[in-house]
Write a structure and sequence with these properties.
By secondary structure, the chain is an alpha+beta fold. It folds into two domains: 113 residues, no CATH class; 59 residues. The protein contains five helices and five strands. Helix 3 packs across helix 5 and helix 4 packs across helix 5. The longest helix has 22 residues.
């Protein structure tokens, strides 16, 4: 459990027991939000789920041409990934039906975030259900991400979503629609 520590970044959530996986994830994500980071689901099996700091991993330059002249490269297209190893595991106890939280790595290698809005997980979680429904409906109607973002800025200026957030929400809704269609046939 060793890693470069950052005094600024928040601690890992305390080991605990939860009645279900949804409650557990909500609790650890709220803890992360209060401490300047966010979790994402790294791995999920029927009896176990692993969540890591959203700054885990390394930037993948796949699809980028290394021979492109720097003057023609997009600016501000970097990644926030820095190889953070912080993570937790939730395991199902078959006897009680509860999920127990175990900290796999307690420390971060980066400072805490100044604002929770820098994490997509927190922006999307703060989204009102009716706005989420509007985004999905506009996506199903065939509007482009740019058109949806423009509509949101006019109708719901309090929604602090990036175009990528909107694209992800629309893609997830379309995937769910396809899965629902498969199961209904």
């Amino acid at each position: 459990m060793s890693s470069t520590t950052s005094d600024d970044c928040g601690p890992a959530p305390a080991e605990a027991i939860y009645p279900d996986l949804t409650t557990a994830f909500t609790a650890i994500q709220e803890h992360a939000k209060a401490n300047g980071y966010a979790f994402y689901r790294h791995d999920r099996k029927p009896n176990r789920a692993v969540f890591r700091c959203d700054r885990a991993g390394k930037y993948d330059s796949k699809g980028k041409n290394p021979n492109t002249d720097p003057s023609k490269q997009r600016s501000s297209s970097g990644s926030k990934k820095c190889g953070c190893k912080m993570g937790v595991e939730l395991r199902l106890d078959h006897i009680s039906g509860n999920w127990s939280l175990k900290v796999l790595e307690a420390t971060h290698n980066h400072p805490r975030s100044a604002d929770p809005k820098v994490h997509p997980a927190h922006r999307i979680a703060a989204l009102a259900p009716h706005i989420h429904t509007v985004i999905c409906a506009l996506g199903r109607a065939g509007l482009s991400t740019r058109q949806i973002v423009s509509t949101l800025q006019k109708e719901f200026p309090e929604a602090l979503l990036t175009p990528k957030d909107v694209s992800n929400i629309v893609q997830k809704a379309k995937l769910k629609d396809r899965e629902d269609k498969k199961t209904s046939t």
